[in-house]
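User: My advisor, Dr. K., asked me to get a structural model of this assembly before our group meeting. I'm new to this, so sorry if the format is off. These are the inputs:
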Amino acid sequence: MSIIDDILNETDPVKIREETERNYREHVNPFALRMFKNASLDIIEGKRSGASVWDISGKRYIDCVTGAGIFNVGRHNTQIVEALKKALDRYDMGGWISIIRERALLAKKLSDITPGGLKYSLFCCGGGEAIEVAIKLARGHTDRTEIICMENGYHGVTGFALPATGRDVYKAPFAPLAPGYRHVPFNDIRAVEEAITEDTAAILLEPIQGEGGIRPADDEYLRGLRKICDENDVLLVFDEVQTGFGRTGKMFCAEHSGVVPDIMVLAKSLSGGFYPISCAVFTEEISDFLMTHPFIIINSFGGTSLGALVALAAIEFIEENDLPAHAHIMGKRFIKGLLALKEKYPDLVIDVRGMGLMLGIEFPEESIGPRMAYQLNQNGVISIYTFNNPKIIRIMPTLVITEDEVDFVVQAFDKSLKEIRAQEVRFKK
Amino acid sequence: MATSEEIMEALADFQQQCNNNKRLRRMQRDWTKVLHFKGTETGDYFTMTVEKGEITRNEKGDNGVPDIIVETDSETLCDMFWGDINPTQKYLRGEIKVKGSQEDIMRIDAITAIIWPEV
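Assistant: The format is fine. Below is the predicted structure of the whole assembly, which you can bring to the meeting.
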């Protein structure tokens, strides 16, 4: 038997847990394991399907984290499995120096489905890498250096992306970082106006701040940013890593406001939940920079035959099943249920917000987010607070979640809030 | 119920264990904080000052501006400093109240994990 058979055929949950925890403790990250166990997030995923994940012990959870938007098409989507199997029967990744047919087809598809004049795509593997591509394109195209980004924004933790992430805790140990990044308050158009200089290359933001606490940008704010960019020859970059591919009730979040960026960064669900792939999609005008520097931004594993085929299959599934519309309907159902809980627990729930199936529920203090995540996990829902704002629990299930599953999650919130309220009463005694 | 003296004794032991642990001092070298601990049933406060990973002072009372406030019964406070409980588990289960950033709470847990890895 091969090592793969050994791994896949082992079904004893006790043995699997002991082996996995030992290897995590000794070879991966002992403190992360401890944190997972403390938070009751030490789920070792077994079966995965639709909106659900089963721990190896057989306990079912509704996944409301989905890797912050990786699994829009559902966990272990069988249609994508078939696509990947077919691709594997014929291809490997494809030679980096070759012309890759599937990459070109995916780029065309992205040009077709993204708004406005977004036309060309540069592919890489992760969201942070794609943000780096966007920043390089912005600097290369404009011959300017400064990037205006948002406080509490999150754009990944790699080289050029890390300085754009608007929280010091991610950055402090790694100084000095790449210079030329300026952070302004989110949703504050005056702050951007005051920050613009002759050296501003781009304004970078998420149309809904994910890790910042599920905070949507106002439509007027986005239109104001577009106007500022047009007047100052500055590029507008939307990070749609979490919001893309139907998550917010439209294929891309930019469609809600009608504001078209010059560069859109995509990742997460482009992978279909199977094959890492990300990209920056940009206008023809920006592509001029690549005419003179065609091989200046390269990536060995970005836009491979396999990755591109999986991405095409994922997009096909999203379109055929109209997942954006389903996300909109299920999001409304969530909001209705959560607003009822806000009425029931006015001392604990400050706000319910978001779009489609990118939702957040805000609590009055930071400790409640982690405690709620713990309670929700006890009640069969995988959840976590937003990393830049622990007062908020995110709700980002797969976009194939059913009405019954939405109701289950809302009921789990009800039970969890009841327990948190009891804890608060005990503290006050 | 633990007395103030018993809590101060536990704090002193905790201080010694932390400050004598080179690995911990290196890990926490960028951590400078004021921590308040409150015994909920007694109302007694204790202040711990950490400077660059070294616990420099333990005092009775709520002195200085706290970065973190930990509230629980006096017995649990003692248990925490003696290493008899996992404070993060207690916090997430709502048995210890902590006001502060999640990063600082993780730092406290890291201290516990290094000194008492079996807890």
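One thing worth pointing out at the meeting: The beta strands of chain B are 33-39, 45-51, 54-60, 68-72, 97-99.

User: Perfect, thanks a lot.
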